Amino acid sequence: MKNNVCFLILIILNLYTSCKNKTDVTKKEIVQAIKENNYEQFEDWINNGLNLEVIFRGDTVSPLILSIQEECASIAHKIIRQGVNLEFTYKESTPLHWTIKKNQNETAILLINKGVNLNPVNRDGFTPLHLAAMNSSIDIVKELVNHACNINKTDPFGNTALNFAIATGNDRLINFLLSNGAVVYKNNLPNLLEGPHISETKDELIVKYLKHSADYGYSGIIEMAFPKVSGPIQMWFVDSSYYHIRKNSKVFSEYNGVGKIFVLGEIRGHYDRMIEILKRNYVIDERNNWTFGNGHLVFLGDIMYGADKITECLWFIYNLEKKAEKKGGKVHLILGNYEFMILNNDLRYLAKKYKKLYGNLGISYGDHFKGNFVLSKWLRSRNTVLKINDILFVHAGISSELADLQFSLNDINNYTRNYLKAGSNAQNENINKLLTGTKGPVWYNGYFKKSSKYPMIRYDEIVKILMQYQLSTIIVGHTEVDTIDTCFNGVVIGVNVPLWNKEIPNQSLLIDKGNYYRLEKDKQRILIK
Length: 529
Prior knowledge:
Number of strands: 18
CATH topology of the largest domain: Purple Acid Phosphatase, chain A, domain 2
Number of domains: 3
CATH superfamily of the largest domain: Metallo-dependent phosphatases
Helix content: 25-40%
Number of helices: 21
Structural class: alpha/beta
CATH class of the largest domain: Alpha Beta
Strand order of the largest sheet: 7-11-12-13-15-14
Distance between the termini: 136 Å
């Protein structure tokens, strides 16, 4: 009996010793192994039944957070896979907060895929998405957003992840957040919808609208994708208008045999006044359809300046081109200096609405006028000079210096198109400086006044230009006039009556069978040539 008892005690002691060797590891030893990044020792303990939850129960120290702080990714991954508490907080931050703070991306992604809470706030009020945006950690931002985190949760000061992304200036991050519904909360604008801005891929049209809600105090982007179709598309839940995206029709520098020509000066974003003039003079009907038959409509540039309906103006002209062609007519948009500026991302004179809205979202207005955006490609393919019959249409004018180069009109258009598409190089730099400078066709003021860089043009110089290009008349915009009328013995006509000035009545120019008429608000036709 005594021998049996001794044998039983021996068995118990052996079992105790065995268990002690497997699990009796101190906190100090565990912490030391983590700090030394001793993965082999740690793995052996885990494989032999080490229970971290039991050892660290009630403690303020978390071996998972410690391994993250010490950048021991392999140990952290082993701990995560053991099934410990993944929501344990240290200094009011979860392991997910700590991984992002320490740029431990693989560990963060492992935690996210384990189903941890994606929206906890630390003691500063920041979520993991806030921290990832601050760090420009776009891979973590994508992982969090793709796992349906709260993309617009705010910190104590009302900032969203998009605010932090904007502060970093990371365009890829900003655009990713915007395309997934991110907003910023600001109350600096009325309710407005800006767009659409449509870009093309091989198979799709990507449509973006910028929105500000004054009611809820936020700015954001609505983004949709449509398959490419041959007919018009409509974003019915955002915008009731139709948009027919097409290949840009070929433009020529000269047209002959045109009976009627309707001419407008600078629109400068004044959509409503433009529509009013065109309807009153039967160029379009009440539904903005073309009613001008086989006539030609000429816009003399600077659509993109001043007022706050630039996008509406551009889409109207873009769509009207196709409508006119179906009826045998033609719409021409001559590029002005403000088109050149915005297409080169020079936004100094942009309307406050655009500056505030785009500023809220941390993007540039010019971003929607480059690359594969429909309006960008269309504008960059337009003319800078145009001859219809024996009449030259140009935004600002042809200077003597430009005429002396003996360029054809086609040469001028090709040079400016190439500049807008590809910029300057060593071969064309001097030509581009002239074409886009103060003596070029989009900036020259010499028909109406002198400047510090050149005198006012002389009549004999005008005659030389007329003979060189076989012209009877030159029609220009750019320089503002109170009344559409002739100068230089009737061979130059300025049509840029400012639409922004409501004290000056709306005016336009009609050329019909060789006669030139000033059209005024009361529908009077006043013969000026």
